[in-house]
């Protein structure tokens, strides 16, 4: 009897919910970014925000909440934000796929349980680079050097970052063991690369592009399945001879799990339209970013596959971090 009453009440309220969803949004939308201004996630959010204003008819305010590889902002969205679509997150591969597998302690959210996928936004390649003075001119030479030179080093912007795990993936696929040297930021990594402090790195496309064009770094390959438009002459890792090496550094948009599906669909439609605008595509490509929108269900499936992929690699390599 109680279950029947609940079902009847839900049916009675259904007509009221639909007009509310159609009216969404009714106030400004807060787009959280889990990293400091100037990074990749922040850049993507600020490219999309003014165009989303046009589509949604409300201000879209980008708010940076940096900390613990994106965990701080993601945990806030999952546990404290209202599930009404007015607070969303520009999530990253770190917070949505890597961190749930990386930390020994619980991170305070479960992506499957606590987050609702809206859409992937962009794919970003990492670029395998060496200093311009390096004797290594292609990936085969680098792999051979990794096998014969026990002291070969690669840098990253921190343990568990996409650049670090790209190096772990290289080790796994080639049977090599270059020494990982983590830095505190992408800027620190670039300084080390330019000074020859480390032999190579999988640097973000945004960071590497200017240095490659300036002749200070040499690009050997990109980590994505397809070549990057802004580095069209640079082969993929697969083309360069490392079968199975695909490592996208992606950014996607999520909401709290209980957000009504009509609101999710409204946000998805707006994001997909914005990501298809020629001026947005051009602005992203100038930063070695490719628009890659998906439906909510496609993005959910993609995130689960990415968590499984990186989780397996992290466990096999024994990579962990203690504190969140």
TrEMBL record:
Leader sequence residues:
1-23
Q: Does the keyword Ribosomal protein apply?
A: no
Q: Tell me where on the tree of life, at the top rank, the source sits.
A: Bacteria
Question: Pfam families from the entry?
Answer: TctC
Q: Which UniProt keywords apply?
A: Signal
Cross-referenced InterPro entries = BUG, Bug_dom1
Protein name, as recorded: Bug family tripartite tricarboxylate transporter substrate binding protein
Give the family this protein belongs to, as stated in its UniProt record.
Answer: Belongs to the UPF0065 (bug) family.
State the species of origin.
Caenimonas terrae
């Amino acid at each position: 009897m109680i279950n029947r009453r609940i079902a009847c009440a839900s049916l009675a309220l259904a007509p009221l919910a639909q007009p509310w969803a159609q009216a969404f949004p009714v106030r400004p939308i807060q787009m959280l970014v889990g990293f400091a201004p100037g990074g990749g996630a922040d850049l993507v959010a600020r490219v999309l925000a003014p165009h989303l204003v046009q589509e949604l008819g409300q201000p879209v305010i980008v708010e940076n909440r940096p900390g613990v590889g994106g965990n701080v902002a993601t945990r806030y969205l999952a546990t404290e934000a209202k599930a009404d679509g007015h607070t969303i997150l520009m999530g990253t591969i770190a917070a949505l796929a890597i961190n749930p597998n990386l930390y020994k302690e619980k991170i305070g959210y479960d992506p499957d349980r606590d987050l609702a996928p809206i859409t992937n936004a962009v794919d970003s390649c990492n670029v395998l680079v060496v200093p311009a003075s390096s004797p290594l001119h292609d990936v085969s030479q680098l792999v051979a050097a990794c096998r014969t030179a026990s002291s070969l080093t690669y840098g990253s912007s921190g343990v568990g970052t996409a650049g670090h795990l790209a190096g772990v993936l290289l080790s796994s696929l080639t049977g090599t063991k270059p020494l990982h040297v983590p830095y505190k930021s992408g800027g620190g990594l670039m300084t080390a690369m330019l000074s020859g402090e480390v032999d190579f790195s999988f640097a973000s496309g945004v960071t590497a592009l200017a240095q490659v064009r300036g002749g200070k770094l040499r690009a050997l390959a990109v980590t994505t399945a397809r070549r990057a438009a802004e580095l069209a002459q640079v082969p993929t890792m697969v083309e360069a001879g490392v079968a199975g090496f695909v490592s996208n550094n992606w950014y996607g948009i999520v909401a709290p799990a209980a957000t009504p599906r009509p609101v999710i669909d409204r946000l998805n439609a707006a994001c997909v339209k914005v990501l298809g605008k020629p001026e947005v595509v051009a602005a992203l490509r100038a930063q070695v970013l490719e628009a890659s929108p998906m439906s909510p269900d496609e993005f959910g499936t993609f995130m689960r596959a990415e968590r499984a992929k990186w989780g397996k690699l992290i466990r096999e390599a024994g990579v962990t971090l203690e504190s969140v």
